[in-house]
């Protein structure tokens, strides 16, 4: 007896998933304890609450991002100043060595 490859293609898995999702939605509508209008109102209320929460989280994320950007700018300014000071000190040291060497 030949051994068959039992793996499913991605398309088959996707179709099975979509079929199950559609079947679940149909069963949910048919077996729902509330009327359609009540269900829609409940879903809209839930969606509005979630929307408000998402907007609030987005505002918090934006504020945190702005803070990180400001800290990054401050860090870069400090680092630039340190590098410029180090380069200046290096130039002066090199100039002193050249002056001592060439006297």
Give keywords.
103 residues; mainly alpha; 2 helices; elongated
Give a written overview of the molecule.
- It is a single chain.
- The chain has helices at residues 10-30, 36-101.
- The protein has 103 residues and is mainly α.
- It has a domain at 34-101.
- It is elongated and about 100 Å long.
- The protein starts with 9 loop residues before the first helix and ends with a helix.
Residue share in β-strands: under 5%
- Nearest-angstrom radius of gyration? 33 Å
Helical run tally? 2
Question: How would the global form be characterised?
Answer: elongated
Q: End-to-end distance, in Å?
A: 96 Å
Q: Structural class per helix/strand content? A: mainly alpha
Point out poorly predicted stretches: none
Helical proportion, percent range: over 70%
Q: Please count the beta strands (DSSP E, at least 2 residues each).
A: 0
Query: What is the ordering of alpha helices and beta strands?
Result: HH
Mean pLDDT: 88
The main pleated sheet reads as: none
């Amino acid at each position: 007896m030949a051994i068959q490859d039992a793996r499913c293609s991605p398309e088959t898995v996707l179709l099975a998933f979509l079929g199950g999702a559609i079947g679940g939605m149909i069963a949910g509508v048919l077996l729902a304890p509330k009327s359609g209008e009540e269900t829609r109102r409940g879903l809209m209320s839930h969606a509005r609450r979630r929307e408000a929460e998402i907007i609030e989280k987005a505002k918090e994320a934006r504020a945190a991002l702005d803070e990180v950007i400001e800290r990054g700018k401050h860090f870069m300014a400090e680092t630039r100043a340190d590098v410029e000071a180090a380069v200046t000190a290096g130039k002066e040291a090199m100039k002193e060595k050249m002056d001592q060497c060439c006297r």
